[in-house]
Amino acid sequence: MNQKTQTKKPSSIRHTRAIQRDRSKRSVVAPPDEKIEHRLTELLEPAIRAQKETCKELGLRHRKLTLSVMVSIVVSIIWRQIGSGGSEVARLLRSEGLLWVSALKVTQQAISERLRTFPPVLFLRILLYILPILQARWQARQRPLPAELAWAQERYSAVLAADGSTLDVLLRKVGLLRGSETSPLAGKMMTVLDICSWLPRAIWYEEDAKAHDQRFWPQILKTIPARALLLLDLGFTNFAVFAQMTTLTFITRAKNNLSFQVERVYLRTPQVQDLLVWIGSGDDRQLIRLVKVCYQGEWYRYLTNELDPQVLPAEYVAALYRQRWRIEDAFNIAKRVLGLAYFWNGSLYGVQLQVWATWILYSILVDLTDSVAEVLGQPFVRISIEMVYRSLYYFRQARQRGDATDPVAYLADNARWLGIIKRQRKHSVIKFLNLTNLSGP
Length: 441
Prior knowledge:
Low-confidence stretches: 1-6, 11-15, 20-26, 172-179, 435-441
Largest sheet: 9 strands, mixed
Distance between the termini: 70 Å
Strand content: 5-15%
Structural class: alpha+beta
Oligomer: single chain
Number of helices: 17
Shape: globular
């Protein structure tokens, strides 16, 4: 019998396994410097106290592993990248304490059990508590924005992007997965990100890792404020939903096989085409703008429900859509830098605790990075969040030597050799579009 030779499909989780192996073998990382610890504490302690009534409603009994202790444990696991699970945490908690919690004797078994059963909604509420505070801090700072975002910020109530990200595999050796024959995915998260501040507006978790992005449309539509600009990837294409967006503006990519009828030509040049077209059929039939931009010999196609090119010029349609990549950058920081590609607990509650805690630390790290951007007078996008995080080690060393007192000042003063300022890209579609010279509104 002839058998067809099948090419083995490359593993999509190779990076995850490498991270898992690295995290499980990693030695203990030193605690954060006192100044950094203070930044964490000043935000999280009030947020924890605000959950007192919710704890009562959930029937949580007073015990050693309170909400305050659990937050200190989970935040420390992520911030210090502790990969050995409950045993290492128990030793650290007993010998030196964690963050605002003094030394406390608790068994590994107690910590592991608590991580499997602790209500994750409390961590989500802490995240939702601190986000408005961090957004207000962002609003108060002075630092330049990219030209297209500065333009959009003056015309829209918010510039947002929505996208989903599938979480990586769970380790089979933990919790209820011990002895399992397969390594299931940890689920999926959907995020609405403020593109200007890089802070999340809303995050949802779905246990079903195969859940399509379209499933989250009802939650997304309830979250987006009126007069906002929403940037969407191709996977959100839904003509029926597009027709409902009467109070907000969206920009998304157009499918290659999009069927349309041209109603009007606004602009047609060798580099830019701006068309008013009909799409859909029946109740979903609607007018929409199709914008095409040719960059380095390749045509990029976008759809927007803003039908007036005087309100939203074609060049800004293309430039603003490219800012959608900021949400991919956010997922990259959460997964690769803060370790959301490695799950140290296999329970549903444990996964959610890690997801919410990771976004808590992501938001605090964004706030710190934005402080550095303000001191440097640089757009936030020019500052590397990853290098700010990694450079805190050098601040700790400098402070112990008596050479530094403030983390923001130290990071800004040493931004070049620490690699905090990103290299300027040589080729950019933004420069090609030359937005600052447009005569549009």
